[in-house]
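Below is a filled-in request sheet from our internal design queue. Each sheet records the structural input a requester submitted and the sequence that came back. We keep these sheets so that new team members can see what a complete request looks like end to end.

REQUESTER: design group, bay 2
PRIORITY: normal
MODE: inverse folding
CHAIN LENGTH: 138
BACKBONE (tokenized):
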């Protein structure tokens, strides 16, 4: 069976994946304008300052939107369909693409409260995924 692709951390994304391995969602923060940014980049998208600093995010967010994938675009996902691809608005003000786990696709709701968890995908890499906050009515 073909495996799902595993992210390969590089010089720029390394601190992000170091964080996920340790159970922390790391985002880049700009001391010049107090802005957060994601995805990983070399300069602040708000004021173009550099370098950005890595800080642990709260891991809290809400579901902005989602799609349900039925088509197998990569053979590694053949056993996973249908699966959700979600955009999550993090409390820090950035939007992240991920999956919501532990919630049936039919019960996903825009605006639902989510919190990060980390999924071990192999090769010593963990990726952030999101689950409903305890008490959230799906
Ligand atoms: Zn900035």
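RETURNED SEQUENCE:
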């Amino acid at each position: 069976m073909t495996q799902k692709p595993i992210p390969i951390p590089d010089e720029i994304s390394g601190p992000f994946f170091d964080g996920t391995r340790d159970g922390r969602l790391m985002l880049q923060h700009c001391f010049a304008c107090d802005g957060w940014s994601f995805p990983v980049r070399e300069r602040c998208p708000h004021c173009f300052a550099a370098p950005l600093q890595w800080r642990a995010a709260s891991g809290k967010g809400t579901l902005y939107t989602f799609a349900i994938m039925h088509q197998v675009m990569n053979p590694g996902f053949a056993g996973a369909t249908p699966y959700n691809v979600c955009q999550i608005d993090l409390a820090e003000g950035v939007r992240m693409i991920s999956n919501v786990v532990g919630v049936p696709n039919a019960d996903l709701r825009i605006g639902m409260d989510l919190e990060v968890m980390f999924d071990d995908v192999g090769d010593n890499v963990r990726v952030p995924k999101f689950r409903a906050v305890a008490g959230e009515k799906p």
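SHEET NOTES:
- The helical segments are 14-21.
- The pocket of zinc ion is lined by residues 30, 32-33, 35, 44, 46-47, 49 (CB under 6 Å).
FILED BY: M.R.
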